[in-house]
Write a structure and sequence with these properties.
The chain is of the alpha/beta class and 917 residues long. 46% of the residues lie in helices and 16% in strands. Among the domains are: 206 residues, P-loop containing nucleotide triphosphate hydrolases (Rossmann fold); 163 residues, Rossmann fold (3-Layer(aba) Sandwich), CATH 3.40.50.300; 53 residues, no CATH class; 135 residues, no CATH class. The strands form six sheets. It has a seven-stranded parallel sheet with strand order 3-4-2-5-6-1-7, with helices on both faces. Strands 8-13-12-9-11-10 form a six-stranded parallel sheet, with helices on both faces. Strand 3, helix 5 and strand 4 form a beta-alpha-beta unit. Helix 17 packs parallel to helix 27 and helix 22 packs across helix 23. The radius of gyration is 30 Å and the shape is globular. InterPro entries: ATP-dep_Helicase (IPR052511), DEAD/DEAH_box_helicase_dom (IPR011545), Helicase_ATP-bd (IPR014001), Helicase_C-like (IPR001650), Lhr-like (IPR017170), Lhr-like_DEAD/DEAH_assoc (IPR013701), Lhr_WH_dom (IPR045628), P-loop_NTPase (IPR027417). One of its GO terms (molecular function) is helicase activity. This is Lhr-like helicase with C-terminal Zn finger domain.
Length: 917
Amino acid sequence: MPFDVLGEDVVEIVRERGFDVATEPQRRAIPKVVGGGNLLLISPTGSGKTEAISLPVLSLIEGGEGIQALYITPLRALNRDIVGRLEWWGDKLGLDVQVRHGDTTSYRRRQQALDPPDLLVTTPETLQAILPGSRMREHLSNVRHVIVDEIHDLADSKRGIQLSLALERLEEAAGGFQRLGLSATVGNPRDIMNLLVGVDRGCELVWIEASEPFDFLIESPLPETGVDRVKRKTMLSREMSGHLMRMIELIESHKSTLIFVNTRQMAETLSSRMNLLDRTVGVHHGSLSKERRIEVEDSFKDGGLDALICTSSMELGIDVGHVDLVIQYNSPRQVFRLLQRVGRSGHSIEKDSKGVVLSSNPDDIAESGVIIEKALNNDLEDIVPRTMCYDVLANQISGLALEVDDLTLDRAYRLVKKAYPYKDLTKDGLERVLNQLSQARVVSFEDNMVKRRGSTWKYYYSNLSMIPDESTYEVRDIASGRPLARLDESFVAGFAKPGEVFITEGKMWRILSMEDDKIKVEEIKDPQGTIPTWVGEEIPVPYMVAQSVGKVRREVKTAIEKDEKVDFDSLRLSGESVDKIIDVVGRQLDNGFPVPTDKEIVGELGKREVILNCCFGHRVNKTLGQAVTSLLASRIGGSVGLDVDPYRITLKLPGKTRTSIVKEVFPVDPSHLEPILMMSLKNTSQFKWELMKVAKKFGVVRKDAEYTSYDTEKLLEIYKDTPLYKEAMKEILNYKLDIKTSKEVLNAIGSDISVSWKNGHSPIGRLGKESGVDLISPEETDETIIRTIEERIKDDRTLLFCIHCGDWKTTKKIRHVRGDPECPVCDSRYIAALKPWEEEKIKKYKAGKNDKDVKNLIKSANIVLSHGKQGVTVLAGRGVGPTAASRILRDLPEGEGLYRKIYNEERKYARTHMFWD
């Protein structure tokens, strides 16, 4: 038994804990950890891997001063589970185990500085925080073991590269220590090992596969009897109502179900609709408060919930007890995510993981199928660690300057080069970063010496986290006083105000008041709400998955043409799912269109829109789309709209531009791809936003500066060709886009990949617009939204001002405005209708000015003179000015109401106003 190598005391405690038989990870890893070498353990969830690493480390801790071991976890939510288990083991062995993260009280931090624990559980960011402190650094000098849990979750972000440098700084203080990593299954374990141990250090890999891995099925349920009742009650589309019924059926036939979705909005929607159907379900995502997440986790674990709807926040090893079914709603997008999510079911290496994927769109069905096939074959995407990030380097060098009094360039260079992501860094590259920091007065760099300044402490501690900053507002329930969630600033600015309704925790809430960064709300039962908008990118579908979907299409096409049966067994598709894939390919052929596959790109030329059907995944399609729009814009002298999904690049051309012009620029010359992108990206809001984020990390822009009010053009001009600029460009080119694979695709066109063109749009081309299930029933959406818009505008206030006499103005609700407004002073109907905050325009008018504001005021009066209250109503729309109002009132098609036109104009404004001058 592997526990025997840990000593008799540990063996006895192991028996007390009920570990009768060691798991495979424990059998294989424990002896190696005791041997003292570095180790990466890759093993499924629920396999006992935490104890496989932590037990031998605890047994090796000897009595002495300071912190002997660190247990680093990526999420604070994990600490609660890990600490509970580690404290139990530590208590039995006479060891002190404590946790430290951003929520640790100042009292507890002081106690840890005076009397450090033997093992400290912490996060990557908190490790950064305690390294420079003289007393804590002294305690850390005794560290002999570092465990990094869920290291795969850090690997492809700047948090991972930051941790790699922090470990080298720790080694400066502690000398050599054992590095141990815990990871889920990944496609490239060697890269994860390098991130963990750095350059020229050995590391052993222990890889454990689940014995009976997965029981999967993809379903595309058709609406059944009773679906119309569910549709009416939930206001969902008929198709999604059918999916909801199937979910409830699965929940009722299992004891404990996790439902994974890809977005927080979907989590909130499903939760709220299930609550309407009297199902006891919870919701779990990163924007809920810590207290609420813990409450939901415990309730699910204790059997108080039938199901828990969650996002990626539950992919990591949070302990929620036994789960016997995982439902994935729509494609999980990536093989790795499917393994993490469905691996929660069974939660033991000896038990099957049982999962059902619910999909409806043929692309989504095929995508889910190939992801399952790859998961069963352990064919995973690579997790690519970040390399050479200059903003992370800047922050870490400033931390090093706080720790070392006589820091030379050579010493800093030697330390940084030990971290694997910086193995190719040149001394000249480091000097450029140091010069940038010196110019920003973050550190002093002179005569090859790096010295801290008075501002270094503030800069360093203000930039500990590599997670992008986001201003948020705390939402509190006025009845209980407890925090519910945090809403991002853009949502608050665009929607939140007293009286508005939104959804969180699967319930409806009305905003009562807003003060500073706090929003007070009350719960309501009204089913018509707005889901909070969280900023976050869509999970990108990898190139290899999209290519496999293209291969499925190719095989279906061949089978149809040869009148043969298609073998879908490896994709685990239900009968109705198979039918949907065959149907769309069949309709493609019946309509005379080529089938876009992994080997063929099909270009479709519409009247104003061109669809390039490309099975290359999000990042490659985005790369190619960006290059094509740039070339088109330079030719036609106007902007070109771009929309991308894993299987299409959709181009929207302006005016009367002939769509055939796209054939003149696509395919792009592979050698021109990167220069085109570097030239065009610098003028995009995407690059300017990235530049702003990097500038904050370098200390040249205040941390609290807002993008919308900052002069990014000036920032671009000042820092062009600096490390700051290059880092922002590299982040987009290498991680948001995919230059390397895109060049490979372009080079293959004409040999392995063909391009064909057709006029009009095909069934597969149109799938991009139909992708995903509409959340709300179309008729309910139409009726509810228009009714809501009407009620909101009637309750909005308008500022009326008499242009004729200039002596009368008043503010009143739209519903209280009479049919033809008149001035009570001079009886004139020449009345301007303004927003309540536009009083400055009246002052300008009275002062005799003739600028744009005054001209718009006069235009508004002309509209009210011609259209009366209807004109006042239109001008009250959000983002609707006199020009848009005139357009609405000039052209009201028969059967289309006033409020529908206002709604469409408001949507247009919401999409485009950030680009206006």
